[in-house]
Amino acid sequence: MTLLSVIIFIAAISILIIVHELGHFGAARFFKLKVEEFGIGFPPRLFKKKGKETIYSINAIPLGGFVRLYGEGGLEKEEITEPERSFRHQKAWKRAIILAAGVVMNFIVGWLLLSTIFMVGLPQAMFVGDVSPQSPAAEAGIKKGDLIVGEYKNAEAFIEYIKANEGKELTLTINRHGDTFEVKAIPRVNPPEGEGRLGLIPIPIGVEKEGSIFKGLAEGGKTAIGMSFEIVNILGDIAKGLFMGNVKPLFEVSGPVGIIGLLGTAGSLGGLYLLQFLAVISLNLAVFNILPLPALDGGRLLFIIIEKIKGSPVKHVVENMANAIGFAVLILFMLVITIKDITNLF
Q1: Based on CB atoms within 10 Å of each CB, which residue in 35, 48, 124, 134 is the most buried?
Q2: Locate the Peptidase M50 domain: which residues (predicted)?
Q3: Which fold has domain 124-205?
């Protein structure tokens, strides 16, 4: 992990979260709601400037931003003098659009970044998503986050290449944080169940150049949708595993420390590889935020659905308590994953 990787991580996450909050901000302004504050970073506040009615602030913790809407998070007995401009007093469909706007913005960013890559083209390589202990890949010194350089058009092609050479010594070219070197490994003939012949998870990166802007946008959109569904499937597998008492899938997730390392690898290869990685992060943020969990946009949308079903709003104290518990669980989750990532560094 390098200082540059940390800086790239903070800048990338901040930009993607600010874009997310701009979605909420833009939708609220479109419906003429009062926006009390738009903040870059999180308090304590360093600087503020009052617009016509909105405070624009720069805050000390540089990990994203926030939008504070009039009548959004107060108590039920809070005095609202302008209900027509209050978030709480809007019709359900308007509140749903405002809440979903951040997710839509993150998806659009992911789509546009992927489209840019398709328009320009990017040399193809194989990203190592994970390495099984005591596998041929591990014994060869291959690590999670490495790039296997070669003309492999997809993961299936790479797997077929490995299969065709099982039991034979192979030489693979590895790029790690910009340094290129070769390793030798012998693919297993009969690998353990759930592991490949080399014992690594290959993730293809890089794309062939499309012929026009419109083809690039089309391919970018198709890829963004496909990635989003794949992210949903992965999260579903994790949830299923936890429900069945299997915590292993949870520890295959990367937290901030793991992402910093991956960003460093992507950044060392060049700006376009970094853009591709940022596109994936943006799509992950979109999918994660739409999950129907308290403290997330999807959880707040769930409360709106419950409101429509029962015919009256959920008590604000109940919603606030659920969001507080959900936030605490998310922090605990991130703490566990971060500890796992730090442990993997040693």
Answers
A1: 35
A2: 9-332
A3: Pdz3 Domain (2.30.42)
Burial of residue 198 (CB within 10 Å: 0-12, 13-18, 19+) is buried
Q: What is the mean pLDDT of the chain?
A: 82
DSSP 255-298: -HHHHHHHHHHHHHH-HHHHHHHHHHHHHHHHHHHTSS-TTSHH
Which residue is associated with the tokens 């915590």?
247
The pTM (predicted TM-score) of the whole model is 0.77
The angle at the Cα of 217, spanning 212 to 221, to the nearest 5 degrees, equals 150
pLDDT score for 150: 73
In the predicted model, is pLDDT for residue 266 greater than 90?
no
What average pLDDT does this structure show over 331-346? 64
Confidence band, pLDDT 50/70/90 cuts, at residue 47 = very high
Within 13 Å of residue 138, how many CA atoms lie on the same side as its CB?
9
Question: How many Cα atoms within 13 Å fall on the side-chain side of residue 305?
Answer: 8
Distances (CA, A) of 83 to 51, 70, 193, 203, 265: 21, 9, 60, 51, 50
Q: What residues does each domain of the chain span?
A: 3-118+280-344, 124-205
